Give the backbone structure.
Amino acid sequence: MKKTKKKETVTKKVEQAKNIAVTVDNLHITYRGLKKTSIRASWKNMGDKVETYKALRGVSFEVEEGKILGIIGQNGAGKSTMLRAIAGIFSPDTGSIDLHGRTISLLSIGVGFNKKLTGKENIYLSGMLLGFSEEEIAKKEKEIIDFADIGDFIKKPVKTYSSGMYSKLAFAITAILETDIMLIDEVLSVGDAKFKEKSYNKMKELISDTHRTVIIVSHSLGTIKELCDEVLWLEKGEVVMKGTASEVIPKYEEFMGVEGEKK
Amino acid sequence: MKKFFSNIKKYYKYAVRSAKAELKSEVADSYLNWMWWIIEPFCFMLIYTFVFGVVFPNNTKYFASFVFVGQTAWEFFNRMVTGSVKLITNNRDLVTKVYIPKYILLLSKSFTYLFKMGISLIITFGLMIFQGVPLSWHILFFIPILIVLYVLSFGVGMLLMHFGVTLNDLSNLTNIVLRMIFYLSGIFYNINERLGKKNPTLCFFLLRVNPAAFCMNELRKVMLYAKLPSFEGLAVWLIIGIMLCAFGVHVIHKNENSYAKVI
């Protein structure tokens, strides 16, 4: 029932002419050049060839607005690198990433927290780093505090928090301050069982918004199957396959099984 | 350069807020909290005045104020240089998780240092009145002199920030250079008095080639001895400072995306 409904919306969208949210074109990312070294070593190695590591080699794909894309692949396949590149933390070496003017955030926990300050002050610090203005945060402040649900601790320094409370607050900030495109590196599961359910539901609510485009990186195939419209399979920096979850995941499982036997 | 100004405009509020947050957290759990910002410079001044006023006597007028003016300028320069070397590495969390123009980190740091310099300046004025330094309108020239000092240290800071990412031991080198500048700048002795007659050429160079010594000397001239500053000198150092800043911005724009890959 649910699936047919989804399909309907998909076909409707195609009819409306594609509204592309993210375009990644022939993306190459190489780790090189800047390497940690000492002054002496950099003197000695002058003129040496710099070691390079190609994390992504020519990846191209598009995501339509409102779609949820899952990225799977083994460790070191370039999944996180790709997310960071889309978020603008790295610049591509060649190729391009076009967000068509949308706002974007990489959902990550506790960015820019200052542990000696209160939870409230950290909401502002973290929110402003994610690119929101003071006024926007002030509007959402109550909602964030309510969602985090840590009681009076919001007025106490963050270093006095338990690790659960810390992640609850951090999650609340990123979940309530929404952007057009959300990038999620491993679906977050934080806090106690009750909060876990709440955050998972919130996450679902966030990503099922029809205007929000979401890209998820996860090793949990179950989550990917449940949440994603499309799946992109990366291997050694290259796209192996892109398609619906039911097409890609069986092949991926098969591939991983074979890999396991080899070892 | 245009990108630089639009970034500054966009992130200015964040820089201010994070500077405030840092100042707050610095004193959050010390017993005398913000009193340290006054006690520390005052005690240093007492030490220098005792050693170089009593142990090695000299004929400089208003010696305590003389030392304090020098120290105020020096501390700012020193903090900017030391602070910038490890700035990116110390903000690892931030740099790898969100995009932020890296000089915003330095800008924010510089605000905290400016604040401390402000306190130090207020104490200086108090001390000057206490010592009966004749006040004249020349004192107002301290503003352009400090602007030159700020622009210079910001430029130097940006370059050190960039190289500090890849060179682990850059801080060792900067420590040595800073120590050298510290002794050669005449913070606790009067370069003119010690060297003016014995070795006028050396004195001439010490006061002009070293920006820290130059700024200190000019500050003392206008604040303590009611003289006009050397406008040519200020103009030259301002131009050098602006060039350093422009170069620093260029280097950082070109490389900042790679920082996340290194640290």
